[in-house]
Design a protein that fits this description.
Blueprint (H helix, E strand, L loop, with lengths): L2 H6 L4 H22 L1 H5 L3 H8 L2
């Protein structure tokens, strides 16, 4: 689900943004989990860059 599609279906923009971001979090967490060995192999800088907000 993307923000423009949710807004097109009638959701208010703030709600659509929250739903869009919440639906992407599991994929980001799963991707980080799958590649955790590759990320940590490059040292702590990569992990800090990954978790920086």
């Amino acid at each position: 689900m993307t923000l423009p599609a949710l807004v097109a279906f009638g959701l208010p923009p703030v709600t659509a943004n929250a739903v869009s971001r919440a639906s992407r979090v599991p994929g980001a967490v799963a991707g980080a989990w799958v590649y955790r060995r590759d990320i940590t192999a490059f040292g702590p800088t990569s992990t800090k860059a990954l978790t920086a907000c």
